[in-house]
Amino acid sequence: MDYFLTDDQKHIQSLARRIAEEKVVPIRAELDEKEEFPWSVMKVCADTGLFGVSIPPEFGGMGGGCFENCIVVEELSKACLGVSVSYAASLLGAYPILIGGSDEQKKKYLKEIASGKKLAAFALTEANAGSDAQGIRTEAKKVGDEYILNGTKQWITNGGEAEIYTVVAMTDRSRGGRGATAFIVENGTEGFSFGKKEKKLGIRASATRELVFQDCKVPKENVIGREGMGFIFAMRTFDKTRPGIGAQAVGVAAGALEAAIHYAREREQFDKKIASFQAIQHMIADMATQVEAARALVYAVARYIDSNPRDSSKVSAMSKVFPSDVAMKVVVDAVQIFGGYGYMKEYPVEKMMRDAKILQIYEGTNQIQRNVIGLELIKEAASKKK
């Protein structure tokens, strides 16, 4: 379908597609096998300016928004989700600064992120605080002109590779969710270290590590906004980044669909190409329809978010939950079309199936997304009744 992209958007899409095909596809299996962070691809993304697509021009970016980010992420995800999440996590880490940072913070950090000289990461999740984000235990106590952070963050994408971290910690536990504050913490800060690198089912090229804070001293100038705004910034960040998860889902599903069609046109059984079998044609038809529906939803929500609505939580959740469910179904069907070969590492759909599962889990499980959607619909109905 034609989504009426501008010339600039077409250029961004073409650039991302070229990087995916020329730089990612040849090494994706090796990155996955070695669990190696894709620095070579990140450098290409930096050199071509892709890290700045959603950052304002005054901070060295292209001035795009959620939609432009989705375009890039989709193309990279067709080749490798591990690479695309390594790229996308940097914007995730930048968003709290974009949303609530001071002019000084934006000038200092966003230019480096937009140039790709430094990667960013976002740190909210802990061992006992995943979907229940308000259950975080990391604390920050103000002492003079500094805050002292203590605690551990878990499963942080780009952990250990990024230089700039936006971290949510409790400054006043008695206030519950309103007692959390967001900080900028730089790699190399005294008292800030990294735990083990996780070994994962999928997205193995992506680095996932613990962040450990032991009497970590952070200057008060690194508070984003003001005390008590941490969860607000986190939720606003997720409203803007969840369509990016949807774009990852569209990308990996589209990649699996292309691989399945190519294989079906080549594979012979009973002296016929399996593409001639109606059972296979129906599977491909359903896969293609689901991918197109998911893409339409992601693009529509991304454009809506870029129009600066007051509240986008419901549609943002929709743009994550539906495409990620579609992606899981499509990649499983792709493996089925490949048959026994699909189960083998020499073909890409095996990796795609392992990678796709995380899309239903991170940045809020799909069950939590359905909670958000359902509660918002009920609230809307109640307000209309009044």
CATH architecture of the largest domain: Up-down Bundle
Structural class: alpha+beta
Average pLDDT rating: 97
Main sheet specs: 4 strands, mixed
Strand order of the biggest β-sheet: 1-4-5-8
Q: Spans of 5+ residues with little confidence (pLDDT < 50)?
A: none
Number of domains: 3
User: In percent, how helical is the residue content?
Assistant: 40-55%
Give the beta-strand count.
10
Write the layout of secondary structure elements.
Elements (H helix, E strand, L loop, with lengths): L6 H18 L3 H7 L4 H9 L18 H14 L1 H20 L2 H13 L4 E4 L15 E5 L2 E12 L6 E7 L9 E7 L5 E6 L10 E12 L3 E2 L5 H37 L1 E2 L2 E2 L4 H29 L6 H26 L9 H9 L9 H20 L1
Parallel strand pairs: 1-4
Antiparallel strand pairs: 2-3, 3-7, 4-5, 5-8, 6-7, 9-10
Helix pairs in contact: 1-3, 1-4, 4-5, 4-7, 5-6, 5-7, 7-8, 7-9, 7-10, 8-9, 9-10, 9-11
